[in-house]
From TrEMBL:
Keyword entries, A-Z: Kinase, Phosphoprotein, Transferase, Two-component regulatory system
Catalytic activity: ATP + protein L-histidine = ADP + protein N-phospho-L-histidine
Domain Response regulatory per the UniProt entry, residue ranges: 649-765
Residue ranges of every copy of the CheW-like domain listed in the record: 488-630
SUPFAM superfamilies: ATPase domain of HSP90 chaperone/DNA topoisomerase II/histidine kinase, CheW-like, CheY-like, Histidine-containing phosphotransfer domain, HPT domain
Segments forming domain HPt: 1-104
GO annotations of cellular component type: cytoplasm
Residues with PTM 4-aspartylphosphate: 698
CDD domains reported in the protein's UniProt record: HATPase_CheA-like (cd16916), HPT (cd00088)
Protein name: histidine kinase
PROSITE patterns: CHEW (PS50851), HIS_KIN (PS50109), HPT (PS50894), RESPONSE_REGULATORY (PS50110)
Residue ranges of every copy of the Histidine kinase domain listed in the record: 240-486
Amino acid sequence: MIENEKYRHLYKIASDDHIQKIEAGLLHLEKHPQDQAKLEQLLREIHSLKGDSRMLGVDDVETIAHQMEEIIATVQQGERVLTPQVFDCLYLGLDAVRKIAHEAVTGESMGISIFHVLAQLMGAQSNDSWAEIEEESAESELAAFAQFIAEQPVVNYEAELVQEPVIPTTDTFTQVSDNYQIDTIHVESQKLDQLLTQAGELVVTNSQFADWLTEIDQLLMLWKIWKREAFVSRLALNQLRRHWHSNELQLIQDFYNLVETRLEQLGTSLNQLRNRTFDDTTKLEIVSNELASGIYSLRLLPFSDIFNIFARTVRDLAKQQGKEVNLVIEGGETKVDKRILEQMKDPLMHILRNAIDHGIETCQERRLLAKSSTATICLRGYQSGSTVTIEVSDDGRGLDVEAIKQAAIRRDICSSEELARMSTAEIQALIFAPGFSTREDVTEISGRGVGLDVVRANVERLKGNIEVEFTPGKGCLFRITLNSSLATTNVLIMEVNQNPYAIPVEFVEKMLLVAPQEVFATETSQTILFEDQPVSVVWLADLLGLPVKAPTSTKALLFATKTIPCIILRIGSERLALLVDTLLEKQDIVLKPQSQLLAGMPNISGATILGNGKVCLVLNPIDLFKLAKKTTISITVKELAEQAQLRQKILLVEDSIPIRTQMQQILEDAGYEVTAAEDGEDGFNKLQADTFAAVISDVQMPNLDGLGLTTKIRQLPEYKDLPVILVTTLASEEHKRKGVEAGANAYITKSNFKQGAFLDTLRRLMLNDNI
């Protein structure tokens, strides 16, 4: 192990870079053995690795790299041909170098026998493996290696490092001092992560400052109203002084003069505060955005950093299975957050293993199917807006739906009855279920007993989703979609039971208002039609274990019986409609990880602090989808609308005390809250002072009759849809016609009054009005 921590860090970076380039060079030469430029580049990389290892005392890497360098040099000189056996030996040597370098950095023993590796590089048979070389042969191998080294030309390592001495002069030092600069520095990724988190907090803080601007604007509006009222009072005072002169009035006059002076001072201060806050907020927004963007760009790495490491894996696995596979990489230059690369390495490796083991046919099978004997796997990455997509496609056999169904039944993932109700997309998604596999036996290539549920779990951990598409006999495509920004999250904030909740917007397909009659309810579920497709509807409160309540305020009651806010979530081909109390806003947040208190709680992926200081839980859409399939609705939309409707306020306008008392009792027994008025004029004043769901009025009344009241109501836009029922003794067709012309929704005569019919008419009119 390298003793100096700083040198260990430098050696890790340098050796990883050299090893990656050497492996890429070998893979390229395996397909293009005549590429002399790549051969020379490979030789330089091995030589650089050897030199770095020598300087830091990693002798075993130096020795193996020297032997690999000799092999490549003989190929360059035409003394040796690059055969599959030679490549296998070089790969074995490179694997050993990787492990020894890891050992030198971490101190963790990797159990590499340098003698066995050198024996392979010196020309051991390709069917010999390290495990097959017995320990007792180590001495003979060492002797053979010593003889081999003795036959090699002597290399003076020190001579390679020593150059002609240069006697420095003053001019020389001056020139070096003037030209010296450090172009690059190494920064630990953990420090960048911390900086990026703080920069994200700064962006969110800036949005909170914007809320301060709104509050200052509200103060300015209050100041303007106050100034206008003071001006009106001053005019009234001046008129009063013309008719009444006294010392008391002078005192009031002096007070108003002082108030006006203070108001001017307050207005000046408020305007200055607003202007300064606006300027500072604008500057902060620019700086915070540039800072966050700059730090984020430092974390960006090209897809090729992980894509290229799969080339070796695909080559080895295909060779192991006797298949021919060509890996095509697209979009390797696209840069994404380093955490995405780190977290996606294992899922992509698993998908590639599955593709080679399950999806790709043997060469003989492909020829029988009139396909090229060499299969193609395409690994593609690209960015679209705020999302990053990784696609893994192959031209193999595709998914076997029947095999998926049988495996799902065999492994008790679902029953045949449940399968019969599933769509094709839902059946395809079963391959991501825990424990799913179409294989009876565990293979070393794909899974080793671990299914694609692990892949889905890793993707979900990054707040992404994975979907699969296939064409039988033509191939299969796995598409992984992730949020490109991991520092801040754009969320939709909603309210349930007066508490805020957030959900990442990348899962939100649509926000809409749903009317009660649009929801088709059964005993255990609710459904709406969205884009001509049925979508399951659930109360978010039900999923969160909260009571589903009818709103208590009058305005909210009217709103609840008319439309309910709804969010359409989408993951792959699956959709879910969530009903909430209120939709608030979209906002960028810094997602705080779960605390110990929330650890393990379903549906919750973290929390954040809103601009108003409230703690807002961020929901996990994946968990919501899973839970929605198991949750039974506590109350239907129709039932809730009826409950809300029963609590609504009714304005009763009736001049007859006995009839008014009787009508009020009927309405209150039906659950309505009743406000009584003694005539049309009193009724109109009370209508403007409160909010009502409907108006029930007599026709013949003093001051303002029922027809005049109805006409007056309809003249105001805010009351154009308010239900008005006239209940009167006037039963002629002429009176009914006048009632309709005035704008009444229903005309009921007292001679034919029936309580049940009256209440049904009232409910129907309010429901139609609110829909």
